[in-house]
Amino acid sequence: QVQLVESGGGLVQPGGSLRLACIASGSISTSDMGWYRQAPGKQREWVASVDFHGRTNYADSAKGRFTISRDNAKNMVFLQMNSLKPEDTAVYYCRMIMPNYWGQGTQVTVSS
Q1: For residue 24, what are the β-bridge partners?
Q2: Is 89 in contact with 13 (CB distance < 8 Å)?
C-alpha cells in the first residue's frame, strides 16, 4: 500500500502561480505518476503525467502553463501551475498510475 499526500493548494488570483507537491510513502522510481483534477459538478480529468523515464505529457488545457516534474530520491511529484485561470479551480489529485493509488486531493481556487 502506498499513500500519496498532496499539498500546495490554495486561493490565488487569476494570472497567479501555485506549485503542488505530492509525497509518496513508498518508492515512485519505477512508477508513472500523474496529476488529475475534478471541478465541481464535473468528472475527474487528467492534467499531466510523467513516466518513470521522466517523459511528460499534458492535457491541452495545461500545455504551456503547467509543468510536471518528479524527484525520485524524495518520492515526490510536483505540478508547477502558472498563468492560472478561474477554470483551473478544482481539487487536484496525485496518482500513482501503476499500481493504482490516489491521494486525497488539494483544493485550488482561482478567483479575484
Answers
A1: 4
A2: no
Q: How many residues would you count in the chain? A: 112
Q: Which residue shows C-alpha cell 502553463?
A: 65
Structural element, H or E, at residue 55: none
The one-character DSSP state at 88 is: G
- Is residue 4 a contact partner of residue 27, using CB atoms and an 8 Å limit? no
Q: Hey, how many other C-beta atoms are within 10 angstroms of the C-beta on 52?
A: 15
Q: What is the pLDDT of residues 77-108, one digit of tens each?
A: 999 999 999 999 999 999 999 889 999 999 99
Q: Which residue has the cell 478567483?
A: 111
Closest CA to 71 of 59, 54, 83: 54
Count the neighbouring beta carbons within 10 Å of the beta carbon of residue 75.
19
pLDDT at 98: 84
| Residue corresponding to grid cell 501555485 | 18
Q: Which of 10, 22, 9, 15 is nearest to 82 (CA)?
A: 15
